[in-house]
Amino acid sequence: MKKSKMRSEASSSSNNSNRKGETVVGDCGTCRSSCGYCKSSGRTSITHGLWAYSVTVDDYQDLLDRGWRRSGSFLYKPDMERTCCPSYTIRLRASDFAPSKEQRRVSRRMQSVVYIPRFLDGTVDVEKKSVELIKDPSTSNCNKVSSSVENNSLSHNNEENNKEEEILQFLSGQIDNAVQLCIVSGQFLSGIQLPKASVKKVSQAKRKLLVEGMENLLYTSNIAFQLAATLNRAQLAEKDVQQIRVFGQSIEDTGPSPKIIAAKLASSLIQLAETSGLSIRACNGHLNFYSAMKQASLDEDVHIGTVSKESAKTCESKGGCLKNSSEHPQAKRHKLQIRLKRSSFDPQEFELYRRYQIKVHNDKPDQVTETSYRRFLVDSPLVFVPPSGDDTVPPCGFGSFHQQYLIDDRLVAVGVIDILPRCLSSKYLFWDPDYAFLSLGKYSALQEISWVKENQTHCPTLQYYYLGYYIHSCRKMRYKAAYHPSELLCPLRYQWVPYDIARPLLDRKPYVVLSDFASLQNESSPCISENVMGCQHDDIGQGDSNDVRMDYDYDDEMLDPESESDDDEPDTETSRQTVGVEDGDISNIVIRGQGTRDIQRVFGPIQRRSLESQLRKYMKVVGAELSERMVYALGSYL
Length: 638
What we know:
- 31% of the residues lie in helices and 20% in strands.
- It is built from 19 helices and 23 strands.
- A hairpin with a 6-residue loop joins strand 20 (486-489) and strand 21.
- The two termini are 26 Å apart.
């Protein structure tokens, strides 16, 4: 090897002049491990690994844009052609985000339970859209939701139907919220699957059949009957339990009646009654929603359970209808705080992580250690960059952070994120299993997207939200594409391709050079567009009903640098398609290590040839530009 083939640290000092530090990595070569996605029995997950002693935020941003991720201080990139589950980096331009109906519902559910003083360094504007929709059924706004009484028409435009459906879903969600709060407070049995609420609309024709005083009934739900049946069955199964605490009472042998459950839910929904203008009453086990106005304008026919005259009369005569009014105590509204702190070990966070791993991921207690937690979610090689005040760095700075979610000062979730020059990169989230009903995984993702949009005023280059890896072959990972419109990174040319274009290809095979398909898009757009629209979003979000936001790379099983190495295998990179892949000169790689800067004297001819082969492979996986910026560490260089 000629002397010009490699360059020691002494020949370049450009990295040392970087005010944001320097990137120093050790090459771990090709690593094999078991796969946490397909659960294969062998070591089928194949990646290239780097051990990062330090990484600048600029270099890590560029590594992300070449398909790399980090687990603690270990950087890894899937060998896309050989690994069992090809993993595509996925991102979303925050300003283009279009929340789905389910995502809006998650946000409203949280807002109905808590008030939010601040989010990180910015103020959150709490949406009141759903409340406004149901506030006054007799106004013109509500008339847009339903058909006109005067016209008595059965045809509605799409906007009216969507708004009507949104009201029903919103009310159903509020009831589910109240049920879950009863579970958390110990008023309902925990650990059993309870039915979801369904709210139905009472048509104008049905209202005319009701007794006086029931004309203003707009919506009804029979969820209390379903809950009573489920809770009674669960109680009978608990042979060793003699008493069950229900609403502060000791009930022996029998569970709560539908009347008691409906009354409790009506009382819990007092906040909704005050903000929406609806009157909420429990009537013979039914949970009813009434208009505050004498005349209700909603008349769309809906298939619902019959509310009979006899039932209504009995309800009134026996005082069974409990009005949700000032005679009930004010429901407590909880305080949500969201705090951002630099990555560091916190015992309270570790205890929450431990509970989450054991209850949600079914880890064995002896597997969840402080050491593994530190290595996975606390340790970070990123060099912190403090705020500069010149619109190039956000107020919190760049680096690795833990974002804490607290309800009434109780830690309920922690998001592990990296804030970089062009994006917020979400790494992992763990939450309190007792608060699963709040969908904290989805909610935190929405807040992180909002944070990016809010902080663009401080740092205009900060535009994207990175969700980690999208693995089409793993259905649990497909939920990430529900944050629309997202893009996937082409594994060969490192160009971003819209998800809607990539998905039809990934339906056919797991590894695709996405940029090839994107380049043909202009020639065949009508056909491709039709194919995309035909399959778009039909299974996105399936499989994450427990809101396991996956949870950003946990199931990559923290590839260890000491994993089985394939360095003796032929370099398949050199045999792959190379169109668009940049060339570089390994003599430009800065090398550090072995206690000396004279590389030529340290290595003999055979060792130099081996190192040269290793450097070529390294340059291919990180790219020529990054290979010249980062310091390549040999052995224990410190």
